[in-house]
C-alpha cells in the first residue's frame, strides 16, 4: 500500500465556509491512522493547482468568493489534468457548483464554471438551510449520508453524471428529483457541510481507497456517536 499521500486543498481562503476545512483534516486523520504519511498543499489565489497530487478537496463559499474561485480555476489546468488522471476530487456546495458548466451569482448573472461536471446551477426560490439525510446511490457500500445544507443553488444534473444520494430529509440539489450531489468520473460533489467527511467518515475512506486500495478498519465509535446525535437532530 502507498505510504505517502498528498492532498490539495483548493483555494481554502475563498472556499471554506461552514468548516469545510475540516474535510482535509478528516482525510489526513484517516490516512495517518492507517500509517500513511500525508502532505497537505493549500492552493491560494495566484498559486497553480498541482496536477499530480493524490486527492483534491474544494469547499463552499458565498457570492464574490465563488465567482473569483471560478475565474481562477477556469484559467488553471491543474485540476482538469488531475481529473483526467482519475484523482479523487471532493467538491462541496460552491465547490461543486463551480466545477459545472455554469452557476448563478447573487445578482442573477450566469457565471461560467470550470466545465468538469455536467451540471448547471440556477437559483432556488428560497434558501435551503437545515439538516439533510440521504441514502447514497452513487458510491457503493456507504451508510446514510448526514450533513447540513445552506445554499440557494438549484443544481440540475446532465446525462453525463449521476446523483450521489437520494434525499429524504432536506433539499439537496433542489432541481427535479430529491437527490443530493453528483458523481462524475473521479469527482464526488455534495451540498453537505458538517464537515461532510467528519459526519460521513466512510466517504473519506472511499476517497482514500480510490488511491491506495482497501484500508484496514478503524475504531469509528466516536464518529458513530456524532452521526447518531446529528441524525436524531435531523429527525426532530
Ligand atoms: N453561493 C452558493 C449558494 O448559496 C454556495 C453556498 C455555499 O457554498 N454554502 O448556493
Structure write-up:
By secondary structure, the chain is of the alpha/beta class. It is built from seven helices and twelve strands. The protein has helices at residues 22-32, 63-74, 78-85, 94-98, 196-199, 201-212, 221-235; strands spanning 4-10, 37-43, 55-58, 89-92, 102-104, 110-112, 119-136, 145-157, 165-169, 179-180, 182-184, 187-190. Helix 1 (22-32) packs across helix 6.
> What structural category do the secondary elements indicate?
alpha/beta
- In CATH terms, the superfamily is Class I glutamine amidotransferase (GATase) domain
Bound molecules: glutamine
Average pLDDT across residues? 96
What's the architecture in CATH terms? 3-Layer(aba) Sandwich
Q: Which sequence of SSEs, written as H and E, runs from N to C? A: EHEEHHEHEEEEEEEEHHH
Features:
alpha/beta, Rossmann fold, 6-stranded mixed beta sheet, 12 strands
Task: Give a quick precis of the structure.
The protein has 236 residues and is of the alpha/beta class. 28% of the residues lie in helices and 31% in strands.
Question: How would you summarize the topology of this molecule?
Answer:
Blueprint: E1 4-10, H1 22-32, E2 37-43, E3 55-58, H2 63-74, H3 78-85, E4 89-92, H4 94-98, E5 102-104, E6 110-112, E7 119-136, E8 145-157, E9 165-169, E10 179-180, E11 182-184, E12 187-190, H5 196-199, H6 201-212, H7 221-235
Parallel strand pairs: 1-2, 1-3, 3-4, 4-12, 5-7
Antiparallel strand pairs: 5-6, 7-8, 7-9, 9-10, 11-12
Bound molecules: glutamine.
Amino acid at each position: 500500500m502507498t505510504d505517502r499521500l498528498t492532498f490539495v486543498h483548493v483555494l481554502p481562503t475563498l472556499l471554506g465556509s461552514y468548516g469545510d476545512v475540516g474535510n482535509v483534516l478528516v482525510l489526513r486523520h484517516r490516512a495517518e491512522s492507517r500509517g500513511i504519511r500525508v502532505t497537505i498543499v493549500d492552493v491560494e489565489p495566484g498559486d497553480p493547482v498541482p496536477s499530480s497530487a493524490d486527492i483534491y478537496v474544494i469547499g463552499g463559499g458565498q457570492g464574490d468568493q465563488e465567482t473569483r474561485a471560478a475565474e481562477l480555476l477556469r484559467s488553471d489546468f491543474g485540476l482538469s489534468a488531475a481529473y483526467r488522471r482519475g484523482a479523487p476530487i471532493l467538491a462541496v456546495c460552491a465547490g461543486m457548483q463551480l466545477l459545472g458548466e455554469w452557476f448563478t451569482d447573487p445578482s442573477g448573472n450566469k457565471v461560467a464554471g470550470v466545465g468538469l461536471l455536467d451540471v448547471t446551477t440556477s437559483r432556488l426560490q428560497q434558501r435551503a438551510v437545515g439538516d439533510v439525510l440521504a441514502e447514497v446511490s452513487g458510491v457503493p457500500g456507504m451508510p446514510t449520508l448526514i450533513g447540513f445544507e445552506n445554499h440557494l443553488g438549484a443544481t440540475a444534473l446532465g446525462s453525463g453524471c449521476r446523483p450521489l444520494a437520494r434525499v429524504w430529509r432536506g433539499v439537496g440539489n433542489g432541481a427535479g428529483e430529491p437527490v443530493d450531489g453528483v458523481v462524475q468520473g473521479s469527482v464526488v460533489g455534495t451540498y453537505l457541510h458538517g464537515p461532510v467527511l467528519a459526519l460521513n467518515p466512510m466517504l473519506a475512506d472511499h476517497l482514500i481507497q480510490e488511491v491506495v486500495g482497501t484500508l484496514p478498519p478503524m475504531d469509528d465509535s466516536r464518529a458513530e456517536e456524532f452521526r447518531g446525535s446529528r441524525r436524531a437532530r435531523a429527525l426532530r
